[in-house]
């Protein structure tokens, strides 16, 4: 049986995790570990190693489906970097539980016959209110090595892009933001310019809206199934 793939926006555990309860996501009662829910950044599970983390980790581990997540800008990257890296479905991942898997930047994965490009990360506009390595981490932005990795992966085989933010052109047209200084959107614009006319869809979070524009789908509370 072919597994199902769902996608949703930021969960900011514990702030926006309620979208994954059975009331808001009733489809999960029929899912198994061979079905997937992708969280498009600002996952928030790995923020602080405390009782809150342990509670929500157990809660997610009890879910019947597998959770795939890309990083956003509000993540504890110092902690995430300590997780071992393995291979999964053709790309590098960090698997921290049987059903919780981090899709790493610039990696591609073949899942249920579809090829996905993972492109997490974004710039925090509230950096002036945050404390380095406590509530903000410079690794929210792509390193040169990560940029080279994603630019080497973009080709005709990619069906979908999973990112936290979106390309510059989409920032302007979808959100009417003219003065965009996020270098991540500029990198994603390069990806879009190369493969945008050929891919089937691009899913992203970050903007705390549920909005569609052509192949682009910004998700926050909505949970969409990828057909």
Can you describe this structure in just a few lines?
The chain is 20% helix and 25% strand. The protein has 227 residues and is an alpha/beta fold.
Plain-language structure description:
- This protein is of the alpha/beta class and 227 residues long.
- It has one domain (5-226): Purple Acid Phosphatase, chain A, domain 2, CATH 3.60.21.
- It starts with a strand and ends with a strand.
- The longest helix is centred in the C-terminal third of the chain and has 13 residues, at 183-195.
- The model has no long low-confidence stretch (mean pLDDT 96).
- A hairpin with a 2-residue loop joins strand 11 and strand 12.
- It has helices at 51-61, 77-80, 144-153, 168-175, 183-195, and strands at 5-8, 36-40, 66-70, 86-88, 91-97, 100-103, 108-111, 114-119, 160-163, 201-204, 211-213, 216-218, 223-226.
- It has five helices and 13 strands.
Lay out the secondary structure.
Blueprint: E1 5-8, E2 36-40, H1 51-61, E3 66-70, H2 77-80, E4 86-88, E5 91-97, E6 100-103, E7 108-111, E8 114-119, H3 144-153, E9 160-163, H4 168-175, H5 183-195, E10 201-204, E11 211-213, E12 216-218, E13 223-226
Parallel strand pairs: 1-2, 2-3, 3-6, 8-9, 9-10, 10-12
Antiparallel strand pairs: 1-13, 4-5, 5-6, 7-8, 11-12
């Amino acid at each position: 049986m072919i597994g199902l793939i769902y996608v949703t926006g930021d969960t900011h555990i514990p702030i926006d995790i309620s979208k994954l309860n059975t009331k808001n996501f009733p489809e999960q009662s029929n899912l198994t570990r061979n079905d997937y829910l992708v969280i498009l950044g600002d996952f928030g599970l790995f923020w602080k190693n405390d009782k809150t983390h342990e509670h929500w980790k157990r809660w997610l581990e009890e879910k019947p489906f597998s959770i795939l997540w890309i990083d956003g800008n509000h993540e504890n990257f110092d902690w995430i970097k300590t997780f071992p890296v393995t291979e999964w479905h053709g790309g590098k991942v960090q698997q921290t539980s049987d059903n919780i898997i981090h899709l790493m930047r610039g990696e591609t994965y073949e899942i249920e016959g579809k090829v996905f490009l993972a492109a997490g990360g974004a710039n925090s506009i509230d950096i002036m209110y945050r404390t380095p390595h406590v509530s903000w981490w410079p690794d929210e932005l792509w390193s040169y090595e990560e940029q080279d990795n994603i630019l080497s992966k973009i080709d005709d085989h990619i069906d979908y892009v999973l990112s936290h933010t979106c390309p510059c052109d989409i920032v302007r047209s979808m959100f009417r933001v003219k003065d965009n200084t996020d270098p991540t959107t500029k990198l994603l614009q390069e990806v879009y310019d190369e493969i945008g006319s050929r891919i089937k869809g691009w899913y992203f979070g970050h903007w705390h809206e549920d909005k569609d524009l052509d192949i682009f789908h910004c998700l926050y509370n909505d949970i969409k199934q990828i057909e």
